[in-house]
Design goal:
The complex is a heterodimer of chains A (282) and B (254).
Chain A: E1 4-13, E2 16-26, E3 31-36, H1 42-49, E4 57-62, E5 65-66, H2 71-74, E6 77-80, H3 92-102, H4 108-117, H5 131-144, E7 149-153, H6 161-177, E8 181-185, H7 189-192, E9 198-203, E10 206-212, H8 213-218, E11 220-226, H9 227-234, E12 238-245, E13 248-254, E14 266-269, H10 272-280
Parallel strand pairs in A: 3-8, 3-9, 6-7, 7-8
Antiparallel strand pairs in A: 1-2, 1-4, 4-5, 9-10, 11-13, 11-14, 12-13
Chain B: H1 3-42, E1 50-53, H2 56-67, H3 71-79, H4 84-116, E2 124-127, H5 129-133, H6 142-173, H7 176-201, H8 205-217, H9 225-247
Parallel strand pairs in B: 1-2
The chains are: A alpha/beta (282), B mainly alpha (254).
Chain lengths: 282, 254
């Protein structure tokens, strides 16, 4: 089996169970959205895959080989994490130089071009970068590193709307030129909804959904109308949640919507962010 | 293993500090030489000299370097897909290289210094680190003395740098309370509690035996510095083995 396979991984921090029996597959050449609420276990999962922390049990393989402590396999993965692990006194261009040392396919010229596009001063030291530029700095490396697997943990943290837009454009451009596996972990679901192909949702340390975005969205719909009619319709169905405003009610449902609805009800598709909220509420 | 990257990165991390260290040492040497020479030239009665020891400053520098050699490197190397094994092997190679380089430079420094010293009326002298602990044998040639001194310095440097590295790894692995206990409790135990207990209840027997043991394993009693070389290398292997046990399962702190 090609790709990254996470099998029955459990990780606890003291009394807190960050991940519980998590099994998920990340196939080559796909863009994944790793979604979950704060503290759901997204970063923990990415950190385990990249050998930064060890699971209590379970294993992670890349192309059927255990990743743990294997330089050759770890060199195929790059994780841009929220925390910066580049030395504070290091200049941006020095970071490019060292990245090239560790990842031979790192395209330094491309990184310089991206830095110019984002107006990132490569002569600056890491400690002198603002939150936004720190994200840009790490993004530039992640986009230039040319590893088969790139993980982005909160990639647009502190980025203004213009830079976020530029990032998504470059990301799609890069992916269409040479497809690679990208896992984007973010809370800005609306922004990445059209970029990601597959969705992995983690709730309280468990994977509750791992499937193509389109399939997931096709399985959900909303009905709205007078509260009483909506209640009658939803009885016995898989209701994710309801929103009520006066006598008007909106219900989120999983399953296939009937072709015809009772009079007074309207059916509509659900967007990913709304569906995520309903799936992870409570 | 991504050993080359690990080695080159960790080595580069030391380059600047070593350069600054020797720049300061050279500056101080020059300052003392010129200062005391002028002093003597103006007042013939004053015959002041300064003894710049060889090796001790390097020893302290390497210990501190060892203390600063884990946290940042671990973060950077892990960020770049380097395993803990490559990190540690790279670290050992870097320590071996740095200690070799500094032991050599210290010997060259001493050699050049012994030629320059008469030019400044022997105002600034250097004493071999080896001479602080061992009596020179009259039969030893200068070449043999240099060789002995070089290996002695090298082995001690390596052991001390390994100790610095191990301490920083221990501190990295400990929680807040553990750091407090290790940082304050351990020194207090060995520097205050143990001496008091020793002198109150054992009439200093523990410390006498300890220093006697140290003297034996370092070959001080027998005047044999090769004992110290062997002991330091064994200690270094022990320290780095403990280091590996601690590093192999260490998690990167977020």
């Amino acid at each position: 089996m090609k790709g990254i396979q996470v099998r029955n991984v459990t990780k606890t921090f003291g009394k807190v169970t960050a991940l519980e029996q998590v099994s998920v597959i990340f196939e080559p050449g796909k863009i994944y959205g790793l979604l979950g609420r704060n503290g759901a276990g997204k970063s923990t999962l990415l950190n385990i895959i990249t050998n930064r922390i060890f699971p209590d049990c379970g294993e992670v393989t890349l192309d059927e080989e255990a990743i743990q402590e294997r330089d050759a396999l770890l060199g195929k993965i790059y994780l841009m994490s929220e925390k910066t692990f580049y030395p504070e006194s290091m200049r941006v261009r020095e970071a490019f130089h060292w990245t090239k040392m560790f990842y031979p396919d790192f395209d330094q010229a491309y990184a310089e071009r991206l830095a110019a596009q984002f107006a990132l001063d490569t002569g600056k030291r890491v400690k002198a970068l603002s939150t936004g530029f720190l994200s840009i700095f790490k993004l530039v490396i992640a986009l230039s590193v040319n590893t088969p697997y790139v993980f982005l943990d909160e990639p647009v943290l502190g980025l203004d709307a213009n830079n976020r837009d530029l990032f998504y454009k470059i990301l799609i451009e890069k992916y269409s030129e040479t497809p690679f596996t990208m896992i984007i972990s973010t809370h800005l679901i609306d922004e990445v909804a059209n970029v990601i192909e597959d969705v992995v949702i983690i709730k309280n340390g468990r994977v509750i959904c791992a499937e193509p975005r389109e399939t997931l969205l096709e399985r959900a719909y909303t009905v709205s109308g007078p509260a009483a009619v909506v209640d009658t319709f939803t009885a016995g169905r898989d209701v994710l949640g309801v929103e009520t405003l006066g006598g008007f009610r909106l219900a989120y449902l999983m399953g296939t919507a009937p072709d015809t609805l009772p009079k007074g009800l309207e059916k509509a598709p659900v967007d990913l962010q709304k569906l995520f909220i309903q799936l992870t509420n409570v | 293993m991504n050993l080359q990257g690990s080695f080159r990165y960790q080595l580069a991390d030391h380059k600047k500090s070593i350069f600054i260290f020797y720049l300061i040492m050279f500056g101080l040497y020059l300052l003392f030489c010129v200062g005391l020479w002028i002093d003597r030239a103006y007042d013939q009665e004053i015959n002041s000299t300064v003894n710049l020891g060889e090796g001790m400053t390097t020893l302290i520098f390497l210990f501190v370097s060892g203390l600063c050699s884990f946290k940042e490197n671990f973060g950077m190397l892990t960020q770049n897909g380097v395993s803990r094994k490559s990190l540690l092997v790279g670290r050992i190679l870097v320590m071996a290289t740095i200690c070799l380089f500094m032991a050599l430079v210290d010997k060259v420094w001493y050699f050049v210094g012994s030629f320059l010293s008469p030019l400044f009326d022997d105002a600034v002298k250097q004493t071999l680190f080896l001479d602080l602990l061992y009596h020179r044998s009259a039969e030893d040639s200068m070449l043999l003395l240099y060789i002995k001194s070089f290996f002695f310095n090298y082995a001690v440097y390596f052991a001390v740098m390994s100790a610095g590295f191990l301490i920083t790894v221990i501190f990295y692995r400990l929680g807040k309370l553990g750091k407090l206990i290790a940082g304050a409790g351990v020194p207090a135990l060995f520097l205050i509690v143990l001496p008091i207990v020793d002198f109150q209840f054992f009439a200093g027997e523990i410390s006498r035996n300890f220093w006697s043991f140290v003297g034996r394993v370092l070959g001080i009693h027998s005047g044999n510095p090769w004992c110290a070389v062997a002991t330091c290398l064994v200690v270094s292997v022990g320290l780095m083995t403990i280091g590996w046990i601690l590093v192999r399962r260490v998690s990167l702190h977020e």
